[in-house]
Amino acid sequence: MMELLGLKRFYLHLPIASMPHKDILKAIEIYGKEVVPKVKKYFKDKSKLNDFLIK
């Protein structure tokens, strides 16, 4: 779906004003350890696909 829509960026928003500090740190940790590796793996073999997308 991301390729179809031509999405190339991801915006992470943490409502830090309303979250306790320890929860913010945990969210950043989860993002770095679980989300980032999955996104990198997903796009690893898709770099050539961008050449075929309608711009």
From the helix content, strand content and strand pairing, which structural class follows?
mainly alpha
Report the total helices.
2
State the share of residues found in helices, binned by percent. 40-55%
| Overall shape | elongated
**Which blocks of ≥5 consecutive residues have pLDDT under 50?**
none
Mean pLDDT level: 77
- Name the helix and strand elements from N-terminus to C-terminus, one letter apiece: HH
Strand segment tally? 0
End-to-end distance: 15 Å
Give the strand content: under 5%
Written description of the protein model:
The protein has 55 residues and is an all-alpha fold. 51% of the residues lie in helices and 0% in strands. It is built from 2 helices and no strands. The protein has helices spanning 2-5, 21-44. The two termini are 15 Å apart.
Give me the secondary-structure topology:
Elements: H1 2-5, H2 21-44
Features:
single chain; 55 residues; mainly alpha; 2 helices
Provide a brief overview of the structure.
Helices cover 51% and strands 0% of the residues.
